[in-house]
Amino acid sequence: MAVERVSLVGNPNSGKSSLFNHLTGLNQHVGNYPGVTVDKKEGFCLLEKGKRISVIDLPGCYSIYPRSEDERIVQSILTSPGLKEYPDLTLVIVDASNLERSLLIYTQVYDLGLPIILVPTMIDVADNEGIDIDFKKLAEVLGCVTICPVNARTGEGIEALKKAMLTYGNSHHSQPFIAIDDFKQTADKTRLLADSYRPNGKSNGQSTDNAFVPLFFDDPVTQGIETEIRYKKIRRLLGFVISKKQKKSTYSHLTRKIDALVTHPVWGYVIFAGILTLIFQAIYSFAEWPMNLIDDVFFSFSYTVKNWLPPGIFTDLLAEGIIPGVGGVVIFIPQIALLFAFIAILEETGYMSRVVFIMDKLMRPFGLNGKSVVPLISGVACAIPAIMATRSIDQWKDRLITILVTPLMSCSARLPVYTLLIALVIPDIAIGGIFNLKGLVLLGLYLLGLIAALGVAILLKWIIKAKQKSFLIMELPMYKMPRWRNILLTILEKTKVFVWEAGKVILAISIVLWVLASYGPAKRIENAVNSIPKPPVEEGLAWEDYQQQLNTVKLENSWIGILGKTIEPVIAPLGYDWKIGIALITSFAAREVFVGSMATIYSIGEDFEENDSLIDRMRTEINPATGQLVYSLGTGVSLMVFYAFAMQCMSTLAIVLRETKNWKWPLIQTAYMTLLAYLAAWLTYYLLK
């Protein structure tokens, strides 16, 4: 059999993603499954003899019965030969330290009649726990053609697996794992179902005979009975395969001791808060030098383009529009990369599962399911996959509330805005000689988003009515050292997505902004220019002031300036001028566009020899109406609060519409978040001005 496409199936925390990374390396990308917004990871694996096969990492699940969206995707792909993703070969990854639980999904995939290679992982953990597995005997009792144990952490066994994939031949499951006779020995309803199947009949798209019985995708009662039958048979077979020996380590004992501290009802929250504080301190401390370097590089590039290329529209577009706009994205790569690195480390070590566990008790009074914690934490990276993650929540009310409040969590797109504004208005001082004030303000903004999410959730709890009760069932994996290769791949993947997706939008908006800021009604601009008294001598301070006023009135009377002036009365109570208003409008496409917009606006007509970075230009900006600095403490913090609450991401709204299938919910979400952002920003400015 020629294998062209391989799928990976397995439980969460089974080492499936690590195996995917070993097989594909950097030859992978993220896309969407046809018709749904759930992410899929695909890649290419290079085998011997130049063979190149496609590998798809299916969502982790414990069963292929479609109770959640992830399970529905796995079930759909594995039972639909017409789909592009339908595999020629399925690698079922099982945790060797917990074979009983892991083998359930193997038996289900096996009974679909698919070609399978069973891939036990975590062999070292099983060995340390005193679990001795006879893999040869396991292959015999399961009827599996090939078993390839691997260590997904170190890569041991990967080459043997690749060879098995290359040489895999046709297989035929002569005997099912669960047959009709197994059902006839159970409850009356299930026995009647089994009796209804006839040789060469069809059910759920599967051919059946006297031996095989199809999986019951549409009958929850029968699913439960069938799952119980499978587990009983798995336990019986493992009795011939597994033997116990003396443990080599005290991993389980150590895990329990650590869990007693990190899941403590008091110290667990203290430790989590301490970890968050260290993360945001590190984001500022470690990223400062590379960010300054990137800022200097893009400023020098703009200066070089402005002075070396011949004067003209194209030169101005490059120096004042495209380069500052793109630089406004690239400068934040160090902080984005660090944020994703810390999140990946928390997940790799197993600590993130403990966070979900301890936060469950905190979530319930606010009307959220314990499973809501995963989307909320994921929202710190990006609201789009976080909202997709709500598909694991069974109860409609809990899922809807989670969807509506998740965008209040400060995502990575807000990080560039926060960083720019914090650098503008927050002094660089140490609190207690240890904590940087800027890092504490950044942490405070993330906590503000969490508090707002919980506050809105408790209101929605009373507004949205439902009778279902929710509960949390989850597995706490053992602690382990992070796999640095996985973390590096995560950083590269997430940063690439951020730069590419944000970069496309910002580049387009930077070009449009430059055009709108460089042109306007000719007569209006001419009258505004003529109204400024021209100095008698074209040199000295008076001439420099004249040139600055000239640039200002040209910008004010450009198309974008007219738009900014139009909305200025609405945003003036928040401490914002018309330039900030322009950035607010453009950033409704995506929050991070704010920085690129400001970079473009403050580059129009500027003399690069006399001006430094964007922050320096914004820091010296004077409001002509008041004679005060535009970016005072009140204005800067007000802007941070506005962006902490405002729904300024069209992609997120599109996902909310897709998930709720009703325009009502994204419109309600936009309305309440915008109103909350405006009122909170006004109150902040009123208190700090």
Written overview of the protein:
With 689 residues, the protein is of the alpha/beta class. It has a domain at 5-244: Rossmann fold (3-Layer(aba) Sandwich), CATH 3.40.50.300. The protein has a seven-stranded mixed β-sheet with strand order 2-3-4-1-5-6-8, sandwiched between helices. A two-stranded antiparallel ribbon has the order 7-11. A hairpin with a 5-residue loop joins strand 3 and strand 4 (52-57). The longest helix is centred in the middle third of the chain and has 42 residues, at 267-308. The radius of gyration is 30 Å and the shape is elongated.
CATH C-level of one domain: Alpha Beta
CATH topology of one domain: Rossmann fold
Strand order of the largest sheet: 2-3-4-1-5-6-8
Gyration radius, in Å: 30 Å
Task: List the keywords.
elongated, alpha/beta, 689 residues, two-stranded antiparallel ribbon, seven-stranded mixed beta sheet, Rossmann fold
Summarize the structure.
This protein is of the alpha/beta class and 689 residues long. It has a domain at 5-244: P-loop containing nucleotide triphosphate hydrolases (Rossmann fold, 3-Layer(aba) Sandwich), CATH 3.40.50.300.
Please write out the topology.
Layout: E1 5-10, H1 16-24, E2 28-32, E3 39-46, E4 52-57, H2 69-78, E5 89-95, H3 99-110, E6 116-121, H4 123-128, E7 131-133, H5 135-142, E8 146-147, H6 158-167, H7 180-184, H8 188-195, E9 202-203, E10 206-207, H9 220-238, E11 242-244, H10 251-262, H11 267-308, H12 313-330, H13 333-349, H14 351-363, H15 373-378, H16 383-388, H17 396-405, H18 414-425, E12 430-431, E13 435-436, H19 437-463, H20 484-518, H21 522-530, H22 540-556, H23 559-571, H24 578-586, H25 593-601, H26 614-619, H27 633-645, H28 650-660, H29 664-688
